Amino acid sequence: MTEVYVFDAVRTPRGKGRPGGSLENVAPADLVITLINALKSRNGDEAISSVDLLALGTVTQTGDQGGHLALATRIQAGLPESITP
Known about the structure:
Blueprint: H1 28-43, H2 45-49, H3 69-77
Helix pairs in contact: 1-3
């Protein structure tokens, strides 16, 4: 069995991504990049670079959420290609 270690946890803000909602103009990858940056500031770049897997999920995918969010986020955040999305 593979061992999993959780070294920190953060979550995105809650809000409405629909027209007129507080998150209407925020791309899903940008939300995750905000989380990655928070983890980097709390744990250092090396901690993030040592991650093996970036697993993300969305509910009721529409628009930008309908793509491969983990891959898009990994690329946009400049994370190493060694991290499997």
